[in-house]
Amino acid sequence: MKTADAAFVYSIEEHSYHFHDKHPFNPLRLTLTKDLLEACNSLDTNKILKPRKATEEELALVHDLAFIDAVKLAGANKLSAEKARSYGLGTDDTPFFNDMHNAASYLVGGTLTAVDAVMNGSYSHAIHLGGGLHHGFKGKASGFCIYNDSAIAIEYLKQKYQARVLYVDTDAHHGDGVQWSFYDDPDVFTLSVHETGRYLFPGTGSVTEKGAGAGYGLKVNIPLEAFTEDDSFLESYETAFREAVDFFRPDLILTVNGADSHYLDPLTHLHTSLKSFHFIPKLAHELAHEYCEGRWVAVGGGGYDHWRVVPRAWASIWLEMTNQTDVLNQPIPQTWIEQWQDHADVQLPQSWYDDEKMLPVVPRKPIITARNQQTIEKALFHIRNEKPSRRPSFTQKNNLC
Is 401 a residue whose pLDDT tops 50? Predict the structure, then answer.
């Protein structure tokens, strides 16, 4: 029996994943988003699900035990600098911080909590904004990510629920850690829509990365040109998502919702606006109901304009999940603005939408759009020329009707 349509997974313990105050990956983003939803009366804090801490056995579904041991030592300041570098730790991107193993384990446990909430039938959807650490590798941390919660959750879904997963990543950076974890796996379809790696970390995610062996054709990358704006971004996302889900017919959709493709983001070169961040969850919501009985888990990811972009973008996911998008037509609550304005180094937004007069003009828009359309053609060539998957749904397989 369902408890509610959607679960919000959050706990203050997740704030311990904090490299330092000047690091762009800051748990302040979680606080600002939760506070914004509360100010809108859109989130009942009494019904928030607390994440559990992932066990070492669960971490080892994806990560090497030697890497897990290294993370523990790093968090106790007992790992040499030379050894740390071999594990991607102690870098500018992923520096040491106290008890980093436990902090990262909570983020993984949060995504597992969200997955269980959906797969045990209590909720149709779940959101865990502390997740989305998609750059973590089997034996190496990378790009602010220690343990890869999404990859672990996918392997957990496979082993515990025998589920096939469609992973859709709209972070501006390629979802490399998840893709490589399942590169030859026929039960996991990865779709990543990101800025081309010609100019941006991690440099991978080309259209030629299509998977290997039994997983060939089930890894799709849409590397967009720098300065891609809303229209071309959304055309690319919607085309690829609709064709991928129809081809693969998943049991669950897992989305990574980085908010760093926005034109104000300081780390990337894409030029979307809040318009895209309202549509991204809207399409995921629609397709989850159409193809997998509503099973949709959303996690966070990147996004480094903490004040003007991330809270509105991430709150939009929850509003979409809970059919509260009418809130987007109302002003941003003054209580939220008054609570945070003195802490911010920019003027906080008054609306859920960006002022169109402030959107940057993209002189090469026609060229960029044409190149992105060519990219879509190349990226989707394989699934357009293969027969789509036709298989029993998760409900049919498990006689849940």
Answer: no
